[in-house]
Amino acid sequence: MNRPTYWLVNNRYVPFYASPFMASAEDRAVPGHWEGDLVMGSNNSQIATLVERNTRYVLLAKVDGKDSKTVVDALIKQAHKLPRELYKSLTWDRGSEMAEHKRFTLATDIKVYFCDPQNLWQRGSNENTNGLLRQYFPKGTDLSAHSQAKLNAVARRLNERPRKTLNYETPAERFNQCVASTV
User: Fold this and answer.
1) Distance (Å, rounded) from C-alpha 25 to C-alpha 76?
2) Cα–Cα distance between 39 and 77 in angstroms, integer?
3) Is 98 within 8 Å of 15 (Cβ atoms)?
4) In the chain, at which end, N or C, are there fewer CB atoms within 10 A of the end residue's CB?
5) What are phi and psi of 88, to 5 degrees?
6) Angstrom distances, CA of residue 129 to CA of 69, 81, 120, 171, 173
7) Ordered structural domains, the chain, with CATH
8) How many angstroms separate the first and last alpha carbons of the chain?
9) Cα separations in angstroms, 33 against 8, 45, 133
10) Can you give the pLDDT at residue 22?
């Protein structure tokens, strides 16, 4: 059994367990497994990024702070926009912004997994996407200046960009196929 790591959150220690990936998430064969992270900007600004592992579909959320309550509230809002069949799990790094991961799971019925320390390859699609996002939001810029509408437009551009790993289909095409199959 994994031993927990304890983080100090709101003046109390909270246990976090690194969980092994489910086989269906690791091999990317089944849609609905997401990777998440925060992209940091200047003036303590950030954007939450979510990438679906199978289709590479991107969702971006404006986040007004990096405290756990704010981040989890934004992720819950994003999760409720998707068909339930297309949101099975979320893999996050070990940042304290997901200290309230149990509240997220209770509100959405989505399991949260955490990467092992120093193993960001476990969220490779998300790390790649964060690099692509820097074309639109260079390091050192204030991300709070961008509206949710602007973030949606950037996500749309990324989702309409053909990917070699998808045989030059777009994430939007692949994701729409998944949505159609759930109807």
Assistant:
1) 20
2) 18
3) no
4) N
5) -100, -40
6) 24, 20, 13, 12, 17
7) 20-182 (3.30.420.10)
8) 39
9) 28, 26, 20
10) 46
Residue ranges in the chain whose pLDDT is less than 70: 1-29, 116-124, 126, 183
Predicted confidence at residue 17, as pLDDT, reads 46
* The predicted structure's pLDDT at residue 147: 95
pLDDT of residue 45: 94
pTM of the entire predicted model: 0.80
Tell how strand 58-63 and strand 46-52 pair up: antiparallel
* The two three-digit tokens of residue 130, written as one number: 């964060």
Cβ-based neighbours of 57, under 8 Å, separated by 6 or more? 51, 159, 171, 172, 174, 175
